[in-house]
Amino acid sequence: MNGSDFIEPPPGLIPAAPAEQPAETVRQAPRRVERALPTFTPPPHAMPPNTLPAAPRPGPPPAATPAAPPPAAPTPSAPTSSAPAQGRPAPPTGPVPVIGWRLVDRTGHGIEISSRTVLGRTPDVRRASGAVAAVVVDDPARTVSKTHALVEPDGRALLVTDLRSTNGVRVEYADGRVVDLPPGGAALVAPNDILLLGEFALLVTGTPRATV
User: Fold this and answer.
1) Where are the extended beta strands (E) located within 62-127?
2) Pairing assessment for the beta strands 200-208 and 98-104 based on DSSP bridges
3) Within a domain: residue 116?
4) Is residue 84, in this structure, part of any structural domain at all?
5) b/e per residue 179-195 (b: at least 16 CB within 10 A)
6) How many domains are contained in the chain?
7) Quick check: pTM over 0.70?
8) Residue 118: which of 147, 146, 98, 94 has the closest Cα?
9) What is the 8-class DSSP label of residue 59?
10) pLDDT tens-digit profile of 123-140?
11) Which of 127, 199, 145, 140 is nearest to 170 (CA)?
12) 153 lies in a domain?
């Protein structure tokens, strides 16, 4: 059969070949629909959107309180009276000065003391500087020396000085203390104290000076 013998079918008899399809199915992404967001008007005094109250800024740290200084040590007060002379005890403080000093023995006999007075069995005023009087002490036991002690008024007290006696001078205070004077030593006695010259006891008495 030659070309002239080919019979051409009439149009529409043979359907057209189908279009070429891809090997796999491609999923299409959904379309995004753009929509306008609704708007609204904030009420009065409302806070602007996306605005937060500002946090308070930390201030400077508080200043450290200085520690209180330690209390000052107390200052010792100056003595109100002058220091006693060397070898002379300080006079005791009492309510009022005493006048009318007397030394009373066991028999009730009293010795008046109004100035610097030397006591002894046979007292010698030359043994005590400044002595103006001498009083004999009648001691049967002879424990009192010839020139035994010097006594003198000293305001609120009576000053007693041992004149290097043989048996010494002892003071028995009213508060219970007992003091033996060293040779040449001195002590202050007050009313109701007891003065011992050797073994001879004398009670110290006196009359307080009247005050206005």
Assistant:
1) 98-104, 110-113, 117-120
2) antiparallel
3) yes
4) no
5) eebeeebbbbbbbebbb
6) 1
7) no
8) 147
9) -
10) 999 888 888 899 999 999
11) 199
12) yes
Cα–Cα distances in angstroms (integers) from residue 125 to residues 121, 158, 163, in the given order: 12, 18, 11
Residue 160 dihedral angles phi and psi, to the nearest 5°: -115, 130
Domain region containing 195:
98-208
Tokens read off for 101: 């000093």
Using DSSP bridges, classify how beta strands 133-136 and 117-120 pair: parallel, antiparallel or unpaired: parallel
- Whether residue 178 is contained in a domain is answered as yes
Question: Tell me, what CATH number does 108's domain have?
Answer: 2.60.200.20
Length of the chain as a residue count = 212
* Amino acid letter for position 163: L
Instruction: From 208, 82, 197, 80, select the one nearest 150 (Cα to Cα).
Output: 197
56-69 per-position pLDDT tens digit: 566 666 666 666 66
Q: 119: closest CA among 140, 139, 148, 160? A: 148
Question: 104-115: per-residue pLDDT in tens?
Answer: 999 999 999 999
Bridge partner list, 154: 157
Q: How far is residue 171 CA from its own chain's centroid?
A: 39
C-alpha pair distances (Å), 122 with each of 13, 84, 119, 135: 192, 31, 8, 8
Residue 17 CB burial class (10 angstroms; 0-12, 13-18, ≥19): exposed
Q: Provide CB contacts within 8 A for 161, sequence distance 6+.
A: 128, 149, 150, 151, 181, 184, 185, 186
